[in-house]
Inverse folding.
């Protein structure tokens, strides 16, 4: 275990990371945003999801300026209902990140499994899986997500809708995102299947399932990691988009997208901070994760690797 | 003197300190002379060639010495001056003729461009010159072929076109970096002859960079031997081969399989390799050897009958559009228990397909394979049959793709042990892995590493250990040494021979390299376009070949006699 850690620290991976300022910066920003979101209940000045703590008189406070009626100061200002924007961002990021990670996890499991099956089985099964993927890819993924969201909403009883809203969101984004994973895994697996070590494994008597999981899968993990990171940024944006359109997170639990939707109504009446700060948070989160994914792809791909 | 290199030192800065690729190397070359630079991979031979052309790959840097070409310091020239020099005065021939031509332009367009760039001929004259160049490099019917695209030429013809392109600039110096390594043996001979003739006729200096001693022996006038960045010896080719002075040169030459006789084993091939004492393992009582010593039920261990394989090159639901290639055409042979049976052939002759038909990776279109009485195609029913089939194992050509990079060596070797029904404790399993590593002359410390920590030769040893872990009776060796340096090849061939004697193994040895086959095979079959054209005891193939194709192969094989 300790030896493994030492190997990891000495590896080219860590070496090239320590030499990539953009990657380090993105990593610091992404991980601190994630940490802030996890620690939100402890560090946020207000609890925005608890209506009892809200005071309508605090509405539309400008950033850092004392409220005209109550004298309360909000760092990033407050929204129309007197919710502290900073606290709402912290809690909103929790939802965005939870939905993002879970959706990517779902998409990854689904995509990796289907991609491996397609590559190993070939023939008709391969054709069916990849044609389904092609069909899905020819629609905008947000449309697919909305479709799945609509169907899921339709079959859940009205009284449960707010409770299951987050899970429906995860399901709809996850199901719209598996195609990338499946394509990449199938491609890398087919490259691996051509290699002689697979022939050697067959000769030794390793069965197909073991070849897929013990031999092929560990070799496609790097590509999966890259796709997962880039998908995470996309999933966060998809969630924000769905919430912005009003079909995502419930109004009682605003996510970043919900905040931006609320904020755009006041953009032209001078209350710029309601949309500005949530947008900034979304931008930082998505950009840093994306840049990290780009760096990961360049490092793990031997063709453009850093020497 | 055309070219003089003095005290050339080239370094590659890296994460683990500077790597000196070329260390204080001095060379000189006259007009009309072919100078060979020979060495194993990583010796720095290509780096010298690239440095002359000013084509050093970043972050490589020339840190000392001088390159004087025709009285001019090349290393002090600006980029612009170098570019005008390249092609005009110095030409370069690369290894891979597939990638050195532009696939989208006809040969004519490419030749014309070069001719016009380097001379002030009119377009009509340039066309004549292009035709002249093509016939000079031995392309027949140049007037028709000049209109064709590179893909319409074979590998050897393409390399001729590349040479014509180089000649278009009327260079004084040609650097040929492994010009024939990607080509079949029969084509190699003619290309080398062409380079040599051109050199003497046109009074051009040629530097031939290669790893192949036979190429050096046949083509060069003088030769420089490189080892780890240093030029260890420079001499007239004949006297260097006859009486090498430096210890490395001696080791290198003794590792080359002689084409004119069979030697029992390669001597002192372990230059600069630390030998360590190893305990000997009594294989007859050892787990690894136990089952193998059961004699085969039949004298003919493997019988291949009327084997045929058709690959569908293009499948279509319309039958006239379907295309297929006949890779193996009605092949019949049998391999005796304990012998080494060789199949030789050029690329595309179907020899590797036969290996994969026997191992069961491809299914034959027709015919049968019997292994010790067991029908491998339709006869495998019981667990016992499956166990028997695992007695066939394979050693692959490419040591970089034949090991799973995500598994430790210990896992790689213990996987077949566990699947082969080894039921011992964890400690016993580990001991067995160590024993197998010992058998292939690797340290037990290798077990905990990943394949990327090993060189090509060491990987091939791991690959052999993995095959032995299934306690095989029959090993298919598909070009097991063609990706390796010659000294490593000698070590692996020695190892294979030792293992055969100690474990009573039977080998099917597939190769394109006749001198190697002369050293290892008891019987040799010659393949051409999917069929066996000749089969006889190994020495007879060399002394009295019968079929005309075999005669050609023997005549054109690179000669290295000692």
């Amino acid at each position: 275990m300790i030896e493994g850690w030492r190997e990891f620290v000495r590896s080219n991976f860590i070496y090239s990371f320590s030499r990539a300022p953009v990657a380090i910066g993105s990593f610091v920003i992404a991980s601190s945003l994630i940490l802030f979101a996890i620690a939100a209940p402890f560090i946020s000045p207000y609890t925005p999801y608890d209506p009892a703590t809200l005071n309508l008189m605090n509405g539309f406070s400008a950033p850092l300026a004392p409220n005209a009626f109550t004298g309360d100061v909000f760092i990033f200002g407050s929204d129309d209902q007197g919710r502290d924007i900073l606290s709402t961002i912290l809690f909103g990021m929790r939802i965005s990140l939870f939905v993002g990670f879970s959706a990517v996890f779902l998409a990854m499991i689904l995509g990796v499994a289907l991609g491996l099956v397609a590559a190993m089985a070939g023939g008709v099964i391969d054709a069916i899986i990849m044609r389904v993927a092609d069909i899905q890819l020819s629609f905008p993924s947000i449309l697919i997500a909305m479709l799945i969201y609509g169907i899921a909403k339709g079959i859940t009883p009205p009284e449960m809708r707010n409770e299951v809203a987050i899970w429906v969101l995860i399901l709809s984004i996850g199901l719209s995102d598996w195609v990338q994973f499946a394509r990449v895994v199938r491609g890398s697996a087919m490259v691996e299947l051509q290699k002689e070590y697979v022939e050697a494994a067959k000769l030794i008597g390793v069965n197909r399932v073991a070849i897929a999981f013990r031999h092929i899968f560990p070799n496609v993990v790097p590509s999966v990691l890259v796709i997962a990171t880039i998908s995470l940024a996309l999933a966060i944006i998809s969630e924000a988009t769905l919430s912005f359109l009003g079909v995502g997170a419930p109004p009682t639990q605003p996510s970043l997208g919900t905040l931006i939707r609320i904020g755009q109504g006041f953009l032209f009446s001078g209350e710029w901070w309601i949309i500005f700060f949530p947008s900034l948070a979304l931008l930082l989160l998505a950009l840093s994760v994306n840049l990290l994914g780009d760096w990961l792809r360049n490092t793990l791909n031997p063709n453009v690797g850093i020497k | 003197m055309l070219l003089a290199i003095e005290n050339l030192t080239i370094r590659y800065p890296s994460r683990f300190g500077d790597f000196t690729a070329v260390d204080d190397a001095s060379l000189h070359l006259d007009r009309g002379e072919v100078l060979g630079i020979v060495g194993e991979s990583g010796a720095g031979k290509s780096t010298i060639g690239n440095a002359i052309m000013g084509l050093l790959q970043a972050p490589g840097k020339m840190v000392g010495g001088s390159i004087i070409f025709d009285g001019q310091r090349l290393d002090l020239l600006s980029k612009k001056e170098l570019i005008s020099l390249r092609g005009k005065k110095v030409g370069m021939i690369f290894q891979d003729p597939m990638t050195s031509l532009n696939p989208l332009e006809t040969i004519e367009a490419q030749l014309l461009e070069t001719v016009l760039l380097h001379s002030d001929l009119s377009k009509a004259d340039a066309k004549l010159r292009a035709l002249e160049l093509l016939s000079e490099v031995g392309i027949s019917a140049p007037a028709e072929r000049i209109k064709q695209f590179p893909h319409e030429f074979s590998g050897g013809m393409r390399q001729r076109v590349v040479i014509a392109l180089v000649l278009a600039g009327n260079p004084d110096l040609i650097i040929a970096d492994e010009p024939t390594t990607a080509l079949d043996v029969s084509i190699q001979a003619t290309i080398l002859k062409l380079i040599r003739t051109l050199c003497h006729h046109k009074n051009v200096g040629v530097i031939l960079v290669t790893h192949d001693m036979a190429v050096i022996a046949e083509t060069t006038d003088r030769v420089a031997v490189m080892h780890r960045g240093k030029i260890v010896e420079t001499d007239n080719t004949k006297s260097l081969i006859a009486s090498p002075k430096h210890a490395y040169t001696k080791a290198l030459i003794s590792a080359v399989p002689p084409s004119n006789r069979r030697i029992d084993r390669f001597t002192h091939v372990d230059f600069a390799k630390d030998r360590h004492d190893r305990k000997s393992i009594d294989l007859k009582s050892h787990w690894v050897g136990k089952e193998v010593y059961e004699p085969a039920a039949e004298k003919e261990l493997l019988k291949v009958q009327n084997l045929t394989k058709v690959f569908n090159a293009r499948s279509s639901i319309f039958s006239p559009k379907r295309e297929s290639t006949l890779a193996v055409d009605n092949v019949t042979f049998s391999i005796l228990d304990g012998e080494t049976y060789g199949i030789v052939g050029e690329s595309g002759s179907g020899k590797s397909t036969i290996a994969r038909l026997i191992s069961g990776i491809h299914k034959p279109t027709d015919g049968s394979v019997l292994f010790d009485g067991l029908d491998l195609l339709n006869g495998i029913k019981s667990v016992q049959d499956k166990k028997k089939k695992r007695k066939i194992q394979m050693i692959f050509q490419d040591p970089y793709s034949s090991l799973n990079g995500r598994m430790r060596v210990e896992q790689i070797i213990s996987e077949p042990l566990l699947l082969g029904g080894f039921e011992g404790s964890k400690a016993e399993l580990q001991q067995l892995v160590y024993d197998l590593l010992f058998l292939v002359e690797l340290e037990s410390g290798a077990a905990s590493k990943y394949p990327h920590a090993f060189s090509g030769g060491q990987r091939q040893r791991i690959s052999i250990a993995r095959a032995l872990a299934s306690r095989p009776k029959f090993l298919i060796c598909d070009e097991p040494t063609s990706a390796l340096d010659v000294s490593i090849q000698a070590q692996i061939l020695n190892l294979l021979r030792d293992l055969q004697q100690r474990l009573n193994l039977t080998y099917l040895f597939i190769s394109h390299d006749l001198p190697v086959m002369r050293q290892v095979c008891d019987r040799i079959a010659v393949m051409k376009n999917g069929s066996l054209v000749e089969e006889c005891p190994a020495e007879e193939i060399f002394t009295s070949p019968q079929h005309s194709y075999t005669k050609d192969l023997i005549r054109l094989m690179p000669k290295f006699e000692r």
User: Anything to note?
Assistant: Residues 22 and 291 of chain A are 7 Å apart (CA to CA).
